[in-house]
Design goal:
7-stranded mixed β-sheet, 6-stranded parallel β-sheet, Rossmann fold, Immunoglobulin-like, alpha/beta, binds alpha-D-galactopyranose, about 675 residues, globular
Length: about 675
């Protein structure tokens, strides 16, 4: 376990640095520019395998020694990556069997990156070797902040090595083929297996895959990649290096990893996060990624990459304006990030991503973009005390928790569910967005967590659900919790097998309903409910078995039948939404529920002004982050020390003016540290 801190009480600022692309004169200029912007951290070596090991077993790290020492002399720390995301061209020649095979049988070749078969013994051995080499050489370097193992695990292989490893995983899970056959419902379509050798990854086949096989393959891949990560971590630890080890998750589209178990296996949790729009929804996207990661980490986390100026998306680059780059950076930090790191430091002149944005654009340091980088450096220094977390580690007080479940995502991706337009991640995000819009803080949890401190817990479309998860939901309600279950949850067991007799089988008793049939809607079709609510995508024929209707379907064949129900169980209630509320209705529904439960906005009135308010708890007090995403100046109220401008707000007047696009960080309450806090902080 790491005992060295990646972050001794200050925010990390910098990003991926790929100096092997540049001549030495540029290195010198890089370091000058980094100093001018107060950059204190770079991630290095991420794609350097071919430079570090130009021929199998022959290492050449002089160039890395040189740049690391130069960085260190300039006071810049580094995360050192193991370069295993991109095996060099010689690797293909020497180990052709270690290349990945797509589901259609195409074997990939080198020429890009991420071209590896995760289960190939040669790939795993080569990865361990290079990790060991780097750990032994740099594991005690004073500038080392941490280990960045691999980069965005996620290449899925369907080839022969994957088949062998998948079978091994399945044998450990099921023991016998009979049990596998039962779990996968192979009695249908003549899929019954009589020999383990016949069991394959879900390769291209004539028509639909077996859904249980597809989800098991997802589970297997997450576990297999975690094993590969853990092997490298073990090499690092065996070298005696005490620096924390992380690997960067990719959000929000990547669903190859079960993030809760992966987070527990790391010393620090980190993500790469790229806006998927240049429209206003980008801000909710930042909050979504940050809230998820803080929750997985159960505390502080690291933003390992974001884009500074522009990212290629679809058929063009979408731009990020300087003020947005700064607001987004503070948005991640407000929600628990200890860093603002970017891909990449200097825009490449050539190579595969040469039109990707960077801290230093092609124009160089004399640019509007780099002016913003300098400005952000000043801001991060001014607010650096926020990086000292409270002793209990809880950075944000939330009354609301949304269940996040990788299995839920995987199971709703199997084909031929009632409506293929259902997207688990969109469903979760739409619910998170509703709370963001009303300025209410949200955590994510997984079934089984202690949720007693939350006043509201929401289960979004968790189609496959274990008995334990259902019992957990029930215990929360019985002891006084308010649970909302969104449509298509608890319908099947973890083998993707429907619990028959009425949906949602696992949760029928808790919700006090019996759903007789699912009635998917057409694209663009909506269904009106009483209470001015509107549904889309989905509707259900719901019968109450004890629950009270809260809203009914207003028209069509379901007219007069319950659409939203509430069941009182023990000291709490379980509410069921049998349709997908449109975003507007979802916003209204959850805003009303928050009012009813007395769940308040972080800064009352702020969201209506276009100001995102987030309160981050710290060792010295609470910090109110105000991010003004609107286009007109606004006045808000607050009291405390505004750290960026160095001004004090209140007590005479607490009115505070925010220009459009601006940010403010107010230390609301300074307090004496407790003895315990002093001790913890001094240890770091
Ligand atoms: C990922 C990778 C980076 C880079 C960026 C581009 O996050 O980790 O190497 O390719 O995407 O957006």
């Amino acid at each position: 376990m790491a005992d060295q801190q990646y972050n001794p009480g200050r925010l990390l600022y910098g990003g991926d640095y790929n100096p092997e692309q540049w001549p030495r004169e540029v290195w010198a200029e890089d370091i000058e520019l980094m100093r001018s912007a107060r950059i204190n951290t770079v991630s290095i070596g991420i794609f350097s395998w071919a430079m570090l090991e130009p021929r199998e077993g022959e290492y050449e790290a002089g160039w890395l020694d040189e740049i690391i020492d130069q960085l260190h002399d300039a006071g810049i720390g580094f995360f050192l990556a193991t370069p295993t995301a991109s095996p060099p061209p010689w690797f293909t020649r020497v180990h052709p069997d270690a290349l990945p095979v797509r589901s259609d049988g195409t074997q990939l070749s080198h020429g890009s990156r991420d071209t590896y078969a995760i289960s190939a013994p040669a790939y795993r051995a080569a990865s361990r070797s290079i990790a060991r080499f780097l750990a032994e050489r740099y594991g005690h370097h004073p500038g080392l902040r941490g280990w960045h193992v691999h980069n965005e695990y996620g290449t899925i292989d369907y080839g022969p090595h994957a088949a062998v490893a998948f079978r091994r995983w399945l044998r450990a899970k099921y023991g016998t083929l009979d049990d596998l056959n039962t779990a996968w419902t192979t009695a249908f379509w003549s899929q019954r297996y009589s020999d383990w050798e016949d069991v394959l990854p879900p390769r291209a086949t004539q028509y639909l895959h077996n859904p249980a096989q597809a989800v098991d393959f997802k589970r297997f891949n997450s576990d297999e990649m975690l094993a590969a990560f853990s092997e490298q971590k073990a090499e690092i630890e065996a070298s005696g290096s005490h620096a924390p080890v992380t690997t960067n998750f990719m959000l929000p589209t990547w669903n190859h990893l079960e993030q809760w178990s992966w987070s527990a296996a790391q010393d620090a949790v980190s993500i790469d996060h790229y806006l998927d729009t240049d429209g206003p929804d980008g801000e909710t996207h930042v909050a979504y990624g940050a809230d998820l990661t803080r929750s997985w980490a159960h505390g502080p986390w690291l933003l390992m990459e974001q884009n500074a100026t522009g990212i290629r998306m679809g058929d063009r680059t979408i731009l990020k304006e300087p003020d947005r780059m700064i607001r987004n950076s503070l948005g991640y930090i407000a929600r628990g990030s200890q860093s603002s790191l970017f891909f990449q430091w200097r825009a490449s002149a050539g190579g595969s991503e040469f039109w990707h944005g960077a801290l230093v654009p092609h124009a160089g340091g004399s640019s509007r973009a780099f002016d913003a980088v300098i400005e952000l450096g000043g801001i991060l220094e001014a607010i650096s005390e926020v990086a000292e977390p409270p002793v209990d580690g809880r950075l944000i007080e939330s009354d609301v928790a949304i269940v996040w479940d990788a299995e839920g995502w995987w199971s709703t991706e199997t084909p031929h569910l009632p409506n293929d337009a259902l997207s688990y991640s969109e469903e979760v995000r739409a619910t998170h967005r509703a709370f963001w819009r009303s300025g209410v803080s949200v955590d994510f949890v997984r079934a089984g967590d202690d949720v007693s401190r939350y006043r509201l817990v929401i289960v979004p479309s968790m189609f496959a659900m274990s008995e334990d998860a259902a019992a957990w939901a029930s215990a929360y309600v019985t002891s006084g919790g308010q649970l909302v279950v969104q449509f298509f949850s608890g319908v099947a067991d973890l083998n993707q097998s429907v619990i028959t007799g009425g949906y949602p089988g696992r949760l029928r008793e808790l919700l006090g309903v019996r759903v007789e049939e699912i009635r998917p809607l057409h694209d663009g079709e909506t269904v009106e409910l009483s209470g001015a609510l509107q549904g889309e995508l989905w509707s259900e024929r719901v019968h109450s078995e004890g629950a009270v209707p809260v809203a009914e379907y207003s028209a069509g064949t379901l007219a007069g039948m319950p659409a939203v129900t509430r069941n009182t169980v023990g000291a709490g209630t379980a509410t069921y939404l049998s349709t997908r509320l449109t975003q507007q209705s979802r916003d209204a529904f959850y805003a009303a529920l928050c009012d009813e439960l007395g769940i308040a906005e972080v800064l009352p009135g702020a969201s209506a002004l276009g100001v995102e308010a987030v309160r981050r708890r710290g060792a010295r007090g609470d910090y109110l982050f105000l991010l003004h995403h609107g286009t007109a100046p606004v006045t808000v109220s607050g009291a405390g020390d505004e750290l960026i401008s160095g001004t004090t707000i209140g007590p005479e007047t607490d009115a505070f003016s925010l220009p459009p696009g601006s940010v403010a960080v107010i230390r609301e309450s300074s307090r004496e540290w407790t003895l315990e806090e002093e001790q913890v902080l001094h240890q770091t």
